[in-house]
Amino acid sequence: MGAERPERAACHDAPVTDHPGTDQATRYDRLALGYARWWAPVLVPMATRLLDEVDSIGAAADRVLDIGTGTGTLAVEAALRWARPRIEAIDASSGMVEVAAGEADRRLGAAARARLGFTTSFADQLPFDAATFDLAISSFVLQLVPSRPAALREARRVLRPGGTLAYVSWLDDDRWFAPDREFDAALDDVGIGAREFDARGGDIPSVSAAANQLRRAGFQDVRAWSAGLEYAYDPDGYLGFMAEFDEVDLFDELEPDLRARLEARIRERLRSLSADELVLRLPVVFAIGRRP
Fold first, then answer.
1. Predicted confidence band at 199 (pLDDT cuts at 50, 70, 90)?
2. In the predicted structure, residue 10 carries a pLDDT above the cut 60
3. What are the residues whose beta carbons fall under 8 Å from the beta carbon of 114, sequence distance 6 or more?
4. Which residue of 62, 76, 132, 246 is surrounded by the most CB atoms within 10 Å?
5. pLDDT tens sequence across 53-64
6. Contact (CB, 8 A) for 166 and 126
7. What's the N-to-C CA distance of the chain in angstroms?
8. Contact partners, residue 87, CB within 8 Å, separation at least 6
């Protein structure tokens, strides 16, 4: 199996730079395995819907770029779906790229795997020549980049005239998820204290903002619309998500006895919630534009 597959040869690291996204990339290096297990499955339906929106474009493309591949959801699905294009996938986190390449090795046959390459680079410093790609796609990344306008302009630069950029990201939203409230209450119960949150400034403010940002970056024939993501957790799945991804630093700092007490209290509180209260519901925005 391994002899036929271009494993690490298909991964390339861009030069290290002093970049405002370096700290975040390093954080995702640590979170890559937890992301793959607990968060990537939540995002799959919206990523698949994005590919549906550009299916005919991707099938006819020669080259496709996945911006911020994470653990490879879009890139691997695109390689499975589209037999023609060469697909390049980039991510700022080398840890995520490593996991994504492993996922590609696991899921793709030799021919499809040979068409998929991975590179560690930032979304606003793409290591590709201008006018290289027919299609650029991105799933839940453009809320994380230090400058979304810069990333959009860079995507336009590497697209050929007539090329398409399509992405899905989070819409700004202030609703609370019931398990999160119970998680913070459990922290109080064991004497740790509820979390304090920083404002999430990266989520897209509105559908019209998504469209206008694409237009300002030089895209035409812009479309943008909202949709709703839903994912049903159970108590163990939510606890795994928190302990191994979302709040992994908090859990790793706890003494074993305190961690065990906290986990038991979280499970107890989560069991008091209804099945409906355990469903994560968040708004997303899809946006598509064409480079003239």
1. low
2. no
3. 5, 6
4. 76
5. 999 999 999 999
6. no
7. 43
8. 63, 64, 65, 66, 75, 78, 79, 115, 116, 117
Mean pLDDT over each residue of the chain, to the nearest integer: 92
Burial class of residue 33 in the structure, from the number of CB atoms within 10 Å of its CB (0-12 exposed, 13-18 middle, 19+ buried)? middle
8 Å CB contact between 47 and 71: no
Strands 63-67 and 86-91: parallel
Among left, alpha and beta (phi > 0; psi -120 to 50; other), residue 205 is alpha
In the structure encoding, which two tokens stand for residue 51, read together?
A: 């590919």
pLDDT of 233 higher than 70: yes
Tokens of 247: 């709040």
SS3 for the chain is: CCCCCCCHHHEEECCCCCCCCHHHHHHHHHHHHHHHHHHHHHHHHHHHHHHHHCHHHHHHCCEEEEECCCCCHHHHHHHHHCCCCEEEEEECCHHHHHHHHHHHHHHCCHHHHHCEEEEECCCCCCCCCCCCEEEEEEECCCCCCCCHHHHHHHHHHHEEEEEEEEEEEEECCCCCCHHHHHHHHHHHHCCCCCCCCCCCCCCECCHHHHHHHHHHCCCEEEEEEEEEEEEECCHHHHHHHHHHHHCHHHHHCCCHHHHHHHHHHHHHHHCCCCCHHHEEEEEEEEEEEECC
pLDDT at 15: 42
